[in-house]
# Entry
Amino acid sequence: MSAAAGAALADAAHRGPVARLVVGLGGLYVAQSVIGGVIFTGLPAVMRKSGASLDDIAFILLTVLPWSFKFLWAPAVERFRSPHGGVRRSRSAIALFGAFAVGAVIACALIGPTALGPLTVAMMVASFSSATIDIACDGHAVESFAERDRGWANAAQVGGAYLGSAIGGGLFLVLIDHWGWQPATLVMACALVALAAPFLLTPDGAVAARQDKPPQSLKQALKRPEIRSGLALVALYVLGQKVSMLLVGPFLVDAGLSLTAIGTLNGLGVTALGLAGALGGGWILRRIGAYRVMGWTLGIQMLVMLAFAVVAHLKLDAPVALMAIYLASAGTLALGFVALYSELMGRASLDQAGVDFTLFQSMDSIVSLVGWRIAGYAGDRLGYAACFAAAAVLALGVSTLIPRFARAQAG
# Structure
């Protein structure tokens, strides 16, 4: 038997049943997003209620920066997780950094929401650990899912993000309201352990990496044209889909929707549609392909932005219509990103899957942050209608470029 055939059989044996993989990885993705929901949504609300200034709240949100720059330490994580000629250690890597994440959340419970300095340090440790787990988790997913099943992997990733955000940014606040900061935060720590358990307690079935596998590095990734074109694809798609999302929440408030209505919309409607879009994406991708889904979702996003622009320009009093438009955007966003990351999975090398996929995610995060900053600046000066109209034009422009990536990949 040839070495290539032997490696193929070993990889085939390493790929477990799809349902088991989806449950295990889905739990990890939910757990990571629980931490993100606590930082992004839960903690700012608690701090504000405790009398913190907006400057203090903005300062602690810097703890999410590890997610933008995790590509810098991704090669080191992958060299530990998948050592040269050694057995893959996905569970060991995730258990190690998961312990740091849980410990940091427990520390937050003991510190309290008013001690800004220690709380920032603890949340930075939690964020760094969570981002590092994501590197190992993505590498394991690329290795474990066959090409035809990658839509399910990305459904677990995107759906997990929605569900985790609902827990960390919704349930967390409800628990604080009833039980207080410390018990609620300790419940979040326990939730992280419970969510990771299905993955950590399942036999790994890992195989040794090839002896001739090149060392994992950013340089190795950027040498490959499919990675460079994948980074361009991420940047363009994120600009077309996400750049205006920062303005939607403030626009709904200014349009007269109550905080209760917006909270219910986010907690129930957006989460339900996001999960439906994510889970439906795995089924749809197997039938029509990632690039067609991306093109369609960009077209829907263009219509959504035009609808927001019309409502803003005419100053219409249409709360029900606004909520419907917002929900359409949420479902479309989830479906589109399942398609995008399914395509990107195919570009990641099995020799350094975590490094390659982390580069794509970091590009997503960095472009999102820059785009939101520009959108916020333009929104203050040009108004909602102009910004939403510009976002619609941008989505249309990106949708015309997507087929070029499909043709280039096919060639």
About this structure: The CA atoms of residues 277 and 335 lie 5 Å apart. The first helix runs from residue 3 to 14.
